[in-house]
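Quick one, tokens below:
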């Protein structure tokens, strides 16, 4: 009796090809004991993280994320930011990624992150955690200069709210509007015009001798109760008037 051996031959051929690597091997099974569920972002919710660190020259704070338990063999964690001001998430260590606090509005902001754990068989589980960042008011930065800084008695002088080179200018790193106040702190009494503006002026008084004037610029980022910064500037005044040319 004739026996059809074609199916048997095909099976043997397939087995031979698989052993030679011609046919792809079956998909790898999950690592023993790899369960993608049960992992949580740790701490789950980080609250009241300051936007800037006043004790560290108002630099951003470094925030750490973590995983609630050790990973199973073969489990791979990945991190994604879901909401809030965008940050650069450093995942070079995926078990404890970090980021620097971003600039946030006066009301603060909440950032949400998702942890996804994936096993070798493709199964995965996810969990989310939040970080709330509080706005920090940074102090303004004051600069002051005089033009000219060396004068004769009776000359006009202008006080500027910027550095002697013209830059940088007094400013607030948060973009707040500034209030200005110029005061004389040393030397003969002068009359300051526009003493509550970025630029004040005065005339060096005639006293019969040479002297030094010192002024202070005080800036604040709020009309009342704000943060303050100051800068000083010196004006040297000579009492000897320049010689006057005579026509003969």
């Amino acid at each position: 009796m004739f026996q059809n051996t074609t199916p048997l031959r095909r099976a043997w051929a397939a087995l031979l090809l698989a052993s030679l690597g011609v046919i792809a091997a079956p998909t790898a099974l999950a690592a023993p004991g790899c369960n993608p569920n049960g992992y949580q972002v740790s701490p789950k919710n980080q609250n009241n993280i300051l936007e800037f660190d006043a004790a560290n020259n108002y630099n951003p704070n470094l925030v750490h994320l973590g995983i609630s338990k050790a990973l199973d063999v073969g489990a791979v964690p990945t991190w994604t930011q879901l909401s809030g001001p965008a940050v650069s998430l450093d995942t070079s260590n995926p078990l404890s990624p970090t980021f620097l606090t971003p600039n946030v509005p006066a009301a603060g902001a909440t950032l949400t992150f998702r942890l996804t754990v994936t096993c070798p068989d493709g199964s995965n589980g996810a969990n989310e955690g939040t970080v709330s960042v509080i706005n920090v008011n940074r102090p303004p930065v004051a600069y002051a200069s005089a033009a000219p800084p060396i004068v004769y008695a009776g000359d006009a002088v202008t006080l500027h709210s910027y550095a002697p080179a013209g830059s940088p200018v007094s400013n607030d790193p948060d973009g707040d509007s500034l209030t200005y106040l110029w005061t004389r702190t040393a030397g003969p009494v002068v009359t300051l015009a526009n003493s509550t503006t970025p630029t004040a002026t005065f005339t060096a008084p005639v006293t019969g001798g040479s002297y030094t004037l010192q002024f202070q610029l005080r800036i604040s980022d709020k009309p009342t109760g704000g943060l303050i910064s100051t800068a000083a500037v010196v004006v040297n005044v000579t009492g000897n008037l320049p010689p006057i040319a005579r026509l003969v």
